[in-house]
Amino acid sequence: MTDLLAMMEDHWWWLVFAALLGIGEVLLPGVFLIWIAIAAAITGLAALALPIGVPVQFLLFAALCVAAVWGGRRWYVAHPVDSADPLLNDRAARLVGEVVPVVEAIEDGRGRVKVGDGVWSCRGPDTPVGGRVRVVGAQASVLLVEAA
């Protein structure tokens, strides 16, 4: 085994590492490992082309990791990925338009409504218990409602 390690040049380790990170990105997509894989691949190519020692390779890899992640982040901010369900993680926004029953009378603009199997605080026009209101928006975890 040590003969195999001695036979492999430094650049091959970086290229194998880059390939493993690329495979990891495919198996566990998170849009992060790919940037580290790019840094490892560039480090491997630099080690192949230039006579640089291992400590310099690690410094180059660290600098390239920072640059690749920074560049990747800027690219994704400039080119956002469209989602089939943009409100997936915004539960309150998903409720807009729903008609829900009042479970605690809305008095002085405040009350509670039943949404699914949960109860949410709400603000809106005075409505007795059992009345129905339509969700028109949300502020933090408080639903904004109007008469249905």
Automatic annotation (TrEMBL):
It comes from the Bacteria. GO terms for cellular component: plasma membrane. Gene3D superfamilies: Nucleic acid-binding proteins. This is Membrane protein. Keywords: Membrane, Transmembrane, Transmembrane helix. It is found in: Membrane. Its main location: membrane. The keyword ATP-binding does not apply. It is a multi-pass membrane protein. Residues 93-146 form the NfeD-like C-terminal domain. The chain crosses the membrane at residues 12-42, 48-70. The keyword Transport does not apply. It comes from Sphingobium ummariense RL-3.
